[in-house]
């Protein structure tokens, strides 16, 4: 076990929230496949599902482990942080992937409920995780944070009324992703002098459980921009919002 831990500590240590499935899991696989010097910690609200996903990657010869992490629970966040500190001593990359959408469920929840539930995960949870792991990221020689956002949160796109996407009623989700971009901008401004690379990305319209698998892109497609930003060098950009095609309007 000691040799395994030593090997992990010599790697780039990456934590991905909500990584037991969907874009998070696709990112974990692509990241380790393309960058063998990286070890990914699968953050999962369901500990057994996280362990299962990590075991699947390990069976493919990829370096992965898991930790129980519910980003809406402060105790869970702190326990996960303590685990990472105890096992690895630092964190090199935090990928804020966990997210939720209650769009299309108007019969189950009022607008207030949909807004509150969406923001609790997408905004409040994401901000809390980032804040909690900053001390471990500060121990890295090249700390990077990636926020998985969406073009749905772009104010520019949302006010381009010629775009049919603006007609899709997604008030809670759109608002939460616009807020995620501001959370990213805050942490980018607070850490720029410490050498952090903090960016937000839109992975594209990918078929996942978040949209009932209606997306047109594959998990590998969605993971491309996330992996790119997660592996930036020390001369990489910070405080940006982009897709795989380049910088995107706010």
TrEMBL record:
Statement: the UniProt record of this protein carries the keyword NADP: yes
Keywords in alphabetical order: NADP, Oxidoreductase
Record SUPFAM superfamilies: NAD(P)-binding Rossmann-fold domains
Alphabetized InterPro entries for the sequence: CBR1-like (IPR045313), NAD(P)-bd_dom_sf (IPR036291), SDR_fam (IPR002347)
GO molecular function: oxidoreductase activity, acting on the CH-OH group of donors, NAD or NADP as acceptor
UniProt similarity note: Belongs to the short-chain dehydrogenases/reductases (SDR) family.
Name of the protein: Uncharacterized protein
Source species taxonomy: Eukaryota, Fungi, Dikarya, Ascomycota, Pezizomycotina
